[in-house]
Amino acid sequence: MKALHRTLAILASLFLVVQTVRHAYVLWLEPRTSVLDRFDQPLKDEIAAATSVEDLVKRYEPVRKEADRIKAERRAADPKAHFEDEREVEPFKSEVTLREAITNWEQRAKEVYSLRFYWVVGFILSAAGVATYLREHRWLGTTLLIVGFSEIIYWTTPTFFGGGIQEFDRLVENKLALSVVSVVILGLTLRLLNVFEEDGRTP
Questions:
Q1: Cα–Cα distance between 90 and 31 in angstroms, integer?
Q2: What digits encode the pLDDT tens for the residues 115-145?
Q3: I want to staple 179 with a disulfide (CB 3.0 to 4.6 A). Which of 20, 55, 123, 203 is the partner?
Q4: In the chain, what are the domain boundaries?
Q5: pTM score, two decimals?
Q6: 148 SS3 class
């Protein structure tokens, strides 16, 4: 069992450390500008500066009303009018961009909530695994530890898409913080269970 524990510990450490570094890179070092940005300003600046989804909605409402007004006028003149080809002209371009920003914000907010919930579940399972293992129910304890740390690792894995809004940064910040805490918890768990101690010193 000691060999199994050491293998699992190495794998868990590998995943947690690598993704912690990835979160830090995305949050602080990853370039976020493009030479094409100047063609989409100032709308992208407004989206990036939004501090809540309500800010985006306030910007979206007048653009949506204007787009609906134009559509209504064109349909009145031509009931068979189509607008798929109009997405690259205003106000339809801004309407699509803002709608996508609002959708991304709401999705990231849901991910933050799920991340915190499932990380706590993983922590509880891991703590139960340690307690069970120390009570000499080692296979059951090992099983709970595997399930618990699997939850923790899965929900703190990197998010690769959705940059450019503050809610995305908040998601990455949460993942970074919880990844760091997870590394500490893993280290304490390995120390408590003496996973890397010599077999003769194992309790």
A1: 28
A2: 999 999 999 999 999 999 999 899 999 999 9
A3: 20
A4: 2-201
A5: 0.82
A6: helix
